[in-house]
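Onboarding guide, step 5: your first structure request.
Type a short instruction followed by the sequence, for example:

Predict the 3D structure of this protein.
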Amino acid sequence: MSENSENSGTSEAPGAPGAPTPPGAPPGPQPEPIRFFGTTWVDHDGGYGLRRAGVAVGSLAAAVAACFVLRFAFQGLEIAEVGSLIGMLVIVMFAICSAIAFRKTWEGFGARPKDPAREDTLRGLKSIGFIGSLLAYFFRSLIEAPGEKLRRTEYESARTQFDKRRTSRTGNPAARKRPKRR
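The system replies with structure tokens like these:
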């Protein structure tokens, strides 16, 4: 499934203005946690490398296990003697759904969905092609934490905006010395 599809609730993101700041946290926007990584992606600490390796191995193992399950299902169709046409349709359906799920999951790592309603309509298709989503997680975890680039870009721009607003407001304008009038 897409990393972004579960964040479509009404709760505010941790870095959003007006979101509660955890105690002891520096003022300003906070990094958004990533599944399996929390906020270790910010500084690549707290076992970040091991977590990435774990996600890569886990997603690949789950994809292989899912392929075995699909193979057993296909053997069930052969035992039932439903015909070669039905068997080919099942294979084509899973291949197409997996390709679409891979693409949508991969795109979800780089950008927020433009139309969340459309993403909701694709949820069933992505669950049929879950092998594609698992493979997208595997390949992305070889590069970075899935969704890290998107969240890092959003977090850094929020920090930059916060710092810019904060530095432009420093000082009390009422306490400034006014030039003498002649």
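Each response can be followed by summary notes, for example: The two ends are 71 Å apart (CA to CA).
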